[in-house]
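Example S7 (structure tokens).
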């Protein structure tokens, strides 16, 4: 059985890696071709073009890895059927279910690997790729923001700033309102505040403080006021704070909790993007499960029919993803449906196809 397991893994991985290499090179070629005019006009050095290409490889890899493993598993199972290798395996006492389980286990291992890869290497490379792309082609941008209002996950306070400076991690013209079950507990205004990364909270300058103590209102003033209550991360004040696809997961979750209470329409868009980010690597496992649930009746032109079958399966899956991503972003369906509904659709279609194929056989 170990020999069979090694054979399955080696066959699928060899085909998948070759397919990955070809697809990534095609995507890279298309990307460079689309940038050709900008490269020539800006006289970009060849070394920088190479660097830009290398930084883009992780994202291109994640774009094509699902289809590559779908084709690899489909081609392998087609070869087993076309070359009558299944009959030999059945004669040894191995069922199709055992073969399918080995393919699915391989898909699970690959999925876990690419999930870790996408959450670490790909995000860092994507951020650096975007920064270098802006630098090379003369695009300008800023992470500074204006008129930002945020609340903490426990709804214990609301903070408003007229402007956030990314370079110094400073907010200006700040108003902080702390609430309790009885109403407003404290109000603080300050000319500016800066984040203290070593302490994890904000320091307010020229702070004016109003505190309710029973029926009386206590006022005070201090040039420097440290407030351990305010632990909101500086990145949440940035212009691109809604880009949950590149945030740390914990920051993205906290951001979505705040956004759901402040702006439901924007929450649907960001939450859908976050679900897509988390579950996009799992499309590898999903499509490999679909591949083992299909019938492989063709004996000739195995390579051609494997490509056609893989493309048809991928088209149905990704069109479903596109449709439900749009509907979830618009609030028609819940954000999690953007990843759940395509799986259900492609699973039902594969079961129908297998049932029809079995009846004809």
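Recovered sequence:
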């Amino acid at each position: 059985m170990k020999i069979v397991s090694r054979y399955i893994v080696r066959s699928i991985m060899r085909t998948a890696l070759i397919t990955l290499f070809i697809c990534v090179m095609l995507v890279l070629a298309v990307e460079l071709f689309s940038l050709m005019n900008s490269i020539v006009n800006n006289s970009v050095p060849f070394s920088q073009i190479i660097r830009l290409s290398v930084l883009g490889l992780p994202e291109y890899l994640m774009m094509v890895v699902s289809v590559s493993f779908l084709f690899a598993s489909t081609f392998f199972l087609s070869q087993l059927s076309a070359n009558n290798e299944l009959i030999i395996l059945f004669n040894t006492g191995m069922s199709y279910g055992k073969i399918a389980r080995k393919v699915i286990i391989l898909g699970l291992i690959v999925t876990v690997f690419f999930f870790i890869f996408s959450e670490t290497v790909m995000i860092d490379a994507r951020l650096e790729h975007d920064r270098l792309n802006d630098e090379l082609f003369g695009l300008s941008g800023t992470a500074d923001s204006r008129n930002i209002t945020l609340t903490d996950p426990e709804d214990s306070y609301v903070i408003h700033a007229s402007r956030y400076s990314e370079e110094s991690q400073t907010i200006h013209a700040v108003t902080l309102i702390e609430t309790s079950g009885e109403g407003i507990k404290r109000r603080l205004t300050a000319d500016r505040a800066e984040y203290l990364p070593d302490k994890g909270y904000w320091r307010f300058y020229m702070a004016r403080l109003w505190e309710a103590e029973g029926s009386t209102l206590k006022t005070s003033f201090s040039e420097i006021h440290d407030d351990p209550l305010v632990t909101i991360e500086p990145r949440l004040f940035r212009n691109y704070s809604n880009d949950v696809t590149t945030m740390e997961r914990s920051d993205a979750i906290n951001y979505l909790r705040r956004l759901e209470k402040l702006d439901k329409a924007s929450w649907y868009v960001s939450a859908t993007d976050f679900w897509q980010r988390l579950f996009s690597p799992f499309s590898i496992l999903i499509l490999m499960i679909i591949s083992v649930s299909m019938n492989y009746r063709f004996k000739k032109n195995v390579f051609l029919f494997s490509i056609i079958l893989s493309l048809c399966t991928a088209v149905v899956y990704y069109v479903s993803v596109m449709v439900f991503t749009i509907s979830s972003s618009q609030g028609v369906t819940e954000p999690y449906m953007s990843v759940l509904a395509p799986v259900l659709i492609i699973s039902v279609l594969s079961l129908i196809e297998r049932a029809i194929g079995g009846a004809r056989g």
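Notes on this example. The chain is about 60% helix and 20% strand.
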